[in-house]
UniProtKB/TrEMBL annotation:
Keywords: Cell membrane, Membrane, Transmembrane, Transmembrane helix, Transport. Gene3D superfamilies: MFS general substrate transporter like domains (1.20.1250.20). This is MFS family permease. It is found in: Cell membrane. Pfam families: MFS_1. The chain crosses the membrane at residues 12-37, 43-63, 137-158, 164-187, 218-236, 256-276, 307-332, 344-363, 375-397. It is a multi-pass membrane protein.
Length: 415
């Protein structure tokens, strides 16, 4: 028992710090939306908040990975947490909308460093055989933050004010930084050379390294593209969710809120089951089968005509989203060396941010031009097609891996 506690001491501390940061993110998201709407009474101003994150990702993705792979990941996480705390604390003192947007953009820039640095640090800190269980517990915390964060934000706004809620969010980032300070500083055994005299040449060389890696890892790249297309299309569906549920299914605001809560409960249930039974599921099956079942949930939702049928779809997609996301996160960690994870993740994130903005805007345009129901059904069918393709790919990948493992065992016994 002591050994088990010792093994999980630092991972548990990292989970706690990241979990507090997640809760802060959701307090920030809800309180900021309320704050901006109360200040401007503009739906467009609130909608603009959703584009700041992807835009910040586009600005930083092509060069942030170079810094993340070369610098101390723990230090990056602490500095970005402290910077986010200071920037968020400034927001209530700002009077002009463009000033608020500028600070929010800076906060998103910090987040675009924190997340890949956190992923790379996790791979260094947590033993490989514990990655799946760690990711499943992190998924539970994310879902818990999704449930707790908005509730805390609502209470803070109700009993205090928008300003008070935002300042509490700033404190959560500082608390996360304090917890991170107790973690060890870890370095890659094989560091990345930084002898280049020109920063531009350095970045070009890093892009070449990423390109060479992706060319050699075709199966990883194909899996990444298929999975991210599923998730990006899912986000595009989420952007049409309110309009679809209220105009097509004709649900009330309270029924829609209940659906969102049900999805969160489904996700939390899936995460808890996976945390307990993490070692029972092969990672490729988690990605393939869970993505297919997730797509079925979206299909049921798209063809729903009542609260009950939409509820079934939301439960299914929420439950299997936990399996698919955790499986993919573990697959990502297994496929990329820690000393390249920042550059590979950031470069892929650049294209992901662009596709996210394009698809969300395109879905909004189609909904205006055609009909929101046709867009939701068409997008759900696309998700299903990508999911089935990914399932076949993962099934073949797992079988090939099993065959290679058996052949290696036979060669070892023959010796």
């Amino acid at each position: 028992m002591r050994k088990l506690n010792s093994e999980w001491k630092f991972p548990a501390l990292l989970l706690s710090a990241v979990g507090i940061s997640y809760i802060g993110d959701f307090i920030y998201l809800v309180s900021l939306n309320l704050f901006i709407f109360a200040k401007t009474e503009s739906v467009a101003a609130v909608a603009g908040l959703w584009l700041i994150g992807p835009l910040a990702g586009i600005v930083t993705s092509l060069w942030s990975g170079s810094l993340i792979d070369r610098l101390n990941k723990k230090t990056i996480m602490m500095i970005t947490d402290i910077m986010r705390a200071l920037l968020v604390a400034l927001i209530p003192f700002l009077s002009e909308l463009w000033m608020i947007y500028s600070v929010l953009f800076a906060v998103s820039l910090c987040s675009s460093f924190f997340k890949p640095a956190s992923s790379a640090y996790t791979v260094q800190l947590v033993p490989k055989e514990k990655w799946l269980r760690y990711n499943s517990i992190a998924s539970v915390l994310t879902t818990g933050a999704l449930v707790i964060g908005p509730a805390i934000a609502g209470a803070l706004v109700h009993f205090g004010s928008y300003h008070f809620a935002i300042w509490c969010n700033a404190v959560s980032f500082l608390l996360s930084a304090c917890m991170l300070s107790f973690l060890p500083s870890l370095y890659d055994k094989q560091g990345v050379s930084s002898s280049h005299s020109s920063k531009i040449r350095l970045m070009i060389n890093d892009w070449r390294i990423v390109g060479d890696f992706l060319r050699k890892q075709r199966s990883f790249l194909t899996t990444y593209i298929l999975f991210q297309m599923i998730m990006t299309l899912a986000i595009a569906l989420d952007s049409q969710e309110v309009v679809f549920t209220q105009t097509i299914i004709e649900l009330s605001e309270s029924q829609y809120s209940l659906l969102v809560s049900i999805t969160g409960i489904g996700y939390l249930t899936g995460s808890l089951i996976l945390a307990v039974m993490a070692n029972k599921f092969p990672v490729p099956y988690l990605i393939g089968f869970a993505s297919t079942l997730l797509s079925i949930g979206y299909g049921i939702y798209a063809f729903s005509h009542s609260f009950f049928s939409a509820c079934i779809g939301f439960i299914i997609l929420g439950f299997f989203s936990a399996f698919a996301n955790t499986g993919f996160q573990t697959f990502f960690q297994q496929s990329i060396p820690s000393n390249k994870m920042g550059r590979v993740g950031a470069t892929l994130g650049f294209f992901q941010s662009i596709s996210l903005i394009v698809i969300i805007l395109f879905a909004s345009f189609l909904s205006e031009w055609l009909n929101v129901k046709e867009v939701v059904i068409g997008t759900s069918i696309l998700i299903m097609l990508f999911a089935v393709t990914l399932n076949v790919l993962m099934f073949n990948y797992h079988n090939k891996k099993e065959i290679n493992y058996k052949n290696a065992k036979q060669r070892e016994l023959a010796r």
